Amino acid sequence: MLQQNIVILETNPVRRDYLRSIISEWGYVPFSFDKETICLDNLSTLNPGLVISGELSLERTLRFVNALKMRNPCLPLLIISGDHAIQYTIDTSLFNDIFVIDTTAKPFEIKNSITKIQGNGLENKMFKDCPLIIGNSPEVIKTKKMILELSRTKETVLIQGEAGTGKDLVARTIHFLSDRRNNPFIKVNTAALCHEKVEADLLGLNPGAISGANWNPKKIFEIANTGTVYLDRIEKISTPIQAELFHVLDAEDMSKWCTDKKAGVDIRIIASTTADLGLHVEKGKFRKDLFYRLNVIRIAIPPLRNRIQDIPLLASFFNDMFCRDTGRSNYDLSEKTKNILRRYHWPGNVRELKNVVKYSVFLGNEYSMLNQTLSHQPHDFIDYSEDIYNIAELSDVKKYLMDLSKVSLKDICREFITRTEKKIMQQALKKTNWNRKKAAILLDISYKSLLNKIKAYDLIGSSGNQEKLPQRH
Predict the structure, then answer these.
(1) CB-based contact 415:469 (threshold 8 Å)
(2) Which of 100, 220, 266, 457 is most exposed, with minimal Cβ within 10 Å?
């Protein structure tokens, strides 16, 4: 029996030697590393059957997991950590071959975990093509949980989200986590269809019209039988084509399109849209019957600006990916870069972030990422990069604190919040030329709340009067 290589990532030298010793005693060949980048760079050469990771921070663990799966989706990982947040994150990651055990685990428990992972080897290989969904924000975790539930059914799914949010990724993940994973996944760009050739294109008689398919003379629904058909940008098709599409998707009519009239067709339909189809139905732009046929279960993909905590993780993932593809050395993003990326509004969502990181990696300069991001800020973007004490204009706080008998933490906090809020509201009103509705949207508060604060802070007709800290009596 051939000895299996096991790679160990452990920053603690004592713990690293301990793991290497017990794993060697069990007949495996251990290779240990103390840095993630060096560990990842040696994976292809060592060809391990398992990677064991010691305790890292949550952020470093997530980055390592994503980089590992990017290089080898089938490689299992055993994480030894006492951080319960890591266990929760892995449970919602959609990975089926990552295991977490506590740092208090005994040697026999570690060995049992390795044995269990080896027994799942065949199952892991089944998911080698499953896409990676990067993110740990509550919005993404909710989406991942829904994807997992939908992968166990065959219901029609409508994915709604802005351009660049990853609708294709979600559709492919649903397919590859389902029992259809080894069957066809065919993407149809419905925006490219025209009425004159809808039947030929949609049914596969004109193979070149539909991207992403490995075509043969059979029709598209014959090819996709037992698989998934993904209808992208469904809102773009014209009303005549909607009628054709509805009849094709009708459960009773679908089998008639096959060459073998006696054979049934088992196809899952997933559609995506950047528009509110319900609103399109109300305006008469989209057929109600087709909408109900597609809108069985809906997933709303959040825009990147609503999942700010995922931005550094996504940036690191794309950075690792492009560094690997170009043969460049990996580097960690500075906190300054992460903060600026968090503050940018990302109108192009994840796709835009990916392109920004790619541009930076190709230039080999992290600052180019900052310059490109800042140069694309909209005119109404509020810059919070100014020192927070300057924003709140609290230069007189030091004088206030000199007399310790007058110190009131409650007063200081209240004044700090008031001045900060007032200054940022002034920025928003200035950026929008005192258009209060636009300013309310920019500040993500209600229009009524904005009016009340404008009155309370006496901002009307003022360029921003500075106020003194309250005096105690």
Answers:
(1) yes
(2) 266
Phi, psi of 3, rounded to the nearest 5 degrees: -75, 140
Domains of the chain: 5-125 (3.40.50.2300), 138-300 (3.40.50.300), 305-375 (1.10.8.60), 388-456 (no CATH)
Give the residues across from 269 on adjacent strands: 229
The C-alpha atoms of residue 254 and residue 93 are separated, in whole angstroms, by: 35
Task: Tell which residue, 184, 190, 176, 234, has the closest CA to residue 213.
Answer: 184
Residues 172 and 131: beta-carbon distance below 8 Å: yes
Query: Is the pTM here over 0.85, yes or no?
Result: no
| pLDDT exceeds 60 at position 188 | yes
How many Cβ atoms from other residues are within 10 Å of residue 406's Cβ? 12
* Alpha carbon distance 14, 468 (integer Å): 57
- Cα–Cα distances (Å) from 399 to 170, 238, 273, 466, in that order, read 56, 68, 57, 16
Q: Where are the alpha helices (DSSP H) in 234-384?
A: 239-249, 277-282, 288-294, 311-326, 335-343, 349-363, 366-375
Q: Cβ distance 80 to 52 under 8 Å? A: yes
- Two tokens, residue 423: 């200054």
pLDDT band at 118 (very low <50, low <70, confident <90, very high): confident
pLDDT, residue 1, reads: 40
Percentage of residues of the chain with pLDDT beyond 90: 39
In 3-state terms, what secondary structure has residue 282? helix
Q: What is the DSSP letter of 394?
A: -
Identify how many contiguous H helices and E strands the chain contains and give both numbers.
23, 10
H or E segment at 285? none
How do residues 265-289 score in pLDDT, each as one tens digit? 788 999 999 999 999 999 999 999 9
- What's 137's DSSP letter? S
Model confidence pLDDT, tens digit, residues 2-34? 568 999 999 999 999 999 999 999 999 999 999
CB 52 within 8 A of CB 69: no
Largest Cα–Cα separation, the chain = 92
**Alpha carbons 171 and 151: distance in angstroms, whole number:** 10
pLDDT in tens, 393-445: 444 555 555 555 555 667 767 777 787 788 888 888 887 888 888 888 777 77
Burial of 66 (0-12, 13-18, 19+ CB in 10 A): buried
